[in-house]
Amino acid sequence: MHSPNTAANSPNATEFGNRLFVYEVVGLRQNTETDKMGYPIRKSGSVFITVPYSRMNQEMQRINRMGGKIISIQSVTGAANGVNGKATTKAEPTKTTSETKSQPMTQTKETTDIPVNIYRPNKPFIGKCIDNYELVAEGGIGTVRHVTFDISGGDLRYLEGQSIGIIPPGVDDKGKPQKLRLYSIASTRHGDRLDDKTVSLCVRQLEYKHPETGETVFGVCSTYLCNLEVGADVKITGPVGKEMLLPNDENATIIMMATGTGIAPFRAYLWRMFKEQHDDYKFKGLAWLIFGIPKTANILYKEDLEKLQAEFGDHFRLTYAISREQQNSEGGRMYIQHRVAEHAEELWSLIQKNNTHTYICGLKGMEDGIDAALSAQAEKQGLNWSDYQREMKKAGRWHVETY
Predict the structure, then answer these.
(1) Do 221 and 90 belong to one domain?
(2) pLDDT number for residue 28
(3) How would residue 281 be classed by pLDDT, with cut points 50, 70 and 90?
(4) Residue 102 located in a structural domain
(5) DSSP secondary structure code for residue 271 in this structure
(6) DSSP, residue by residue, 159-223
(7) Active-site positions?
(8) 30-39, 64-73, 113-122, 285-294: segment of lowest average pLDDT
(9) Could you say which of 37, 152, 293, 333 would form a disulfide bridge with 298 (CB–CB 3.0 to 4.6 Å)?
(10) Is the same domain home to 230 and 260?
(11) How many domains is the chain partitioned into structurally?
């Protein structure tokens, strides 16, 4: 990590004055400020921001204010003519902390070689949309689509828990090519058709009020994907990410906490565990999904999830937190952190098992409530939750992907 004190306003600034640098950032919160600035915020993976030398200090401070963390800074060796916010550079991307763990968490013996960045922004894979259907039932809030792409024409392969980048067509308001957006993959490595030829996403159309005009603004890439017609081509990059992969242990306990489209990687996990039966992976442990949504009509993949629960009840547990229809113990709306608090004693007992992996995906706001509930349980045993959580992260048993 570079210190902000070494940036552009030093006496040596003239030496680098015309150079550009690429910040790789994780953890940016999606809010009106980031929307206004046009940052390619997404719930998973990294965001790449091209910064002129003269603005390095300002950008570092702004990223810090928005909860972001700069995990690498690279000098751009060429002109600022790259695509998707990542200027053309000869340097290879620096691996994130999660990509350099000594023991990558993979599912099977055949996946020790985890695919990363097979396709890059300057040479994306051209996939084709073969399916695009609505997931929100009548009476629900917003629109969420399940979109599937044919990837049979290339070498794109991936694992459950990874993400791919999508480059929407056209240019931004500054006349530059649109930046890529990262989306968690919602299908298993074998795809929805079990032929290793597709990849699927779960996409919510981003909609918000412009902070200055009050006008309704729709997300560029999410709107593009939600309206994509079957047969249309799409530019795909990746895959990326090693933080959210499943463990090898078929007897593991897998705790999943999701809000909204944070269900995407967990759909992939559950389909891998229960809908697919392969010789290389037969799940025999316990999977528990705690899913937060605003209304029953917004339960994504509802029919499939409840069918899995009915068929595999000894191995799969499903708990909903429906904020606008259920009340918590204090009479307020029921959010995912309230469900965690209700089941805190049982969750804490499971979490202490050495083969339990906990995954959190979705809105960043749920993390504090989850921490508070588990902290209270840890204190009953004289343990500090923050310290215990830190040890779980080091052991590769605590996995978080929030926005």
Answers:
(1) no
(2) 61
(3) confident
(4) no
(5) I
(6) -TT-EEEEE-SSB-TTSPBPBPEEEEB-S-TTTTTTSS-EEEEEEEPPEEE-TTT--EEE-HHHH
(7) 183-184, 361, 401, 403
(8) 30-39
(9) 293
(10) no
(11) 3
